[in-house]
Design goal:
Strand content: 15-25%
Order of helices and strands: HHEEHHEHEHEHEEH
Shape: globular
Length: about 200
């Protein structure tokens, strides 16, 4: 039930909220992305502002957006502490997480990985920010391993890297071609590889 409520909300807000947002932030996008409806995907992006996931989501081409929704956005746990905000976060597709849920092992009692794997199996798209928080620059960042771990449990999944940058005049969003990592790399190296795909 909640899955279809999220889909309905995300389609509605694509137009009702997305169009004004793109005008306000003067979004300019570079698009080299093709979505195969038979494939499953993870989205990864760098993170500067709280509005990032919504600007990125609503700037997908609508035909691709329809193939990817419902989008499930990994979201800072404390935002869910606001009772009035919580229902809106849920129907927008946000998933709460915190430091205790960043355990990478799927058998860890506090791991979020099994829940994410179930969502992927149910054809839902997980949206990660590998930096784990909003940052002002892309240097000396400790990259989170969540996207790498989820990919390792889902062999037929591809990663969509997206780079968002802000200038005084506009917001630039670059949608890059989906890719797969090399399984021989450990999660720390894979996560750095994924992050470099976002930035370069």
């Amino acid at each position: 039930m909640i899955k279809y409520l999220i889909i309905l909300t995300q389609i509605t807000t694509y137009f009702v909220i997305g169009i004004p947002l793109k005008l306000i932030y003067r979004v300019k996008k570079k698009y080299s992305l093709e979505i195969d409806p038979s494939e499953k995907y993870i989205i990864v992006a760098n993170h500067h502002k709280r509005i990032d996931p919504f600007l990125i989501s609503y700037s997908f081409k609508f035909k691709d957006y329809l193939k990817l929704i419902p989008l499930r956005i990994i979201t800072y746990q404390k935002l869910f502490d606001y009772i009035l905000l919580r229902p809106f976060l849920v129907i927008l597709g946000c998933i709460p997480t915190n430091k205790s849920l960043n355990k990478i092992h799927s058998n860890h009692s506090n791991s979020i990985i099994p829940s994410l794997n179930k969502l992927i199996y149910d054809n839902q798209t997980i949206f990660f920010f590998p930096e784990g928080k909003r940052i002002k620059n892309d240097k000396n960042i400790k990259i989170k391993t969540g996207a790498s771990v989820v990919e390792s449990f889902n062999k037929n999944i591809k990663i969509i890297p997206i780079k968002i940058t802000y200038t005084k005049k506009r917001t630039n969003i670059e949608y890059k071609s989906p890719f797969k990592t090399k399984n021989k790399l450990n999660h720390n190296k894979k996560s750095k590889f994924i992050y470099n795909k976002i930035l370069n």
